[in-house]
Amino acid sequence: MILFCLDTSGPVAGVAIIQDGAVRYEAMAVNKFTHSQSILPMTEEAFHHTGLEVGQTDYFAVTVGPGSFTGVRIGVSTVKGLAHAAGKPCIAVDALEAMAAGVMPFDGVICPIQDARAGQVYGAAFAGGTLERLLPDEPIKLEEYLEKALAFGRDMLFLGDGMPVHRERIAEILGEKARFAPPHLAFLRPASAAFLAWEKQEEAVEYTKLSPLYLRPPQAERQKNLRERV
């Protein structure tokens, strides 16, 4: 069984291949190129270096959000194209859950956050030992998010691109209960997303049913709605 997964939901572009439950290939890129420039060459390299063919893939997986609107669209569109060509099903992966999976186990609450600007984050929370979901994905004011997470009464491990942006404020509010992932663990690992997809094969869908997970309308749509109200 072969599963190919890609992630373009955040600042890091990544691909991974799992074969028979083991990670066969993983690659990440942090560079000046846009994800649209990086992800197809990375996909080609993944299959080339493993000696596999795209047509051998049983499942295609992708992080569908939350995250960058443009990045999510790139990832979902790429996987839909690959799945269509290969005639294989797709699996949607939640980006925040995949981030949390990459830092397990942790004796406390894992708090993946992405910067949503204007003092907000895209946040969720997971039990650090089981990955049980404790808070849903939502766009939320940082202080409100921290108040909800604090109610669990455990140490909290923060990661994601919202962590460095809001680190000072988080430490100010939470004090010693706040922990911060080191840089090499603070982003979404594509192998973590692939692992989650491997565990969710029963949720696979036909490629036309794969869609992005947007927690709020894109900026262009919000601006359009504002203009229409004037």
Task: Write structural notes for this entry.
The chain is of the alpha/beta class and about 230 residues long. It has two domains: about 1-95 and about 190-220, ATPase, nucleotide binding domain (Nucleotidyltransferase, domain 5), CATH 3.30.420; about 105-185, Nucleotidyltransferase, domain 5. Helices cover about 35% and strands about 30% of the residues. The chain contains seven helices and ten strands. The strands form two sheets. Strands 3-2-1-4-5 form a five-stranded mixed sheet, sandwiched between helices. Strand 2 (about 15-20) and strand 3 (about 20-30) form a beta hairpin. The longest helix is centred in the middle third of the chain and has 18 residues, at about 70-85. The radius of gyration is 18 Å and the shape is elongated.
**Poorly predicted spans:** 220-230
- DSSP helical segment count: 7
User: Which whole number gives the mean pLDDT?
Assistant: 93
**Fraction of residues in helices?**
25-40%
Count the beta strands.
Answer: 10
Largest sheet: 5 strands, mixed
Please name the CATH architecture of the largest domain: 2-Layer Sandwich
According to CATH, the fold-level topology of the largest domain is Nucleotidyltransferase, domain 5
Summed up, the domain count is: 2
CA-to-CA gap between the ends? 55 Å
Q: CATH first level of the largest domain: which class?
A: Alpha Beta
What class, by secondary structure content? Answer: alpha/beta
Q: In CATH, what is the homologous superfamily of the largest domain?
A: ATPase, nucleotide binding domain
Tell me the overall shape. elongated
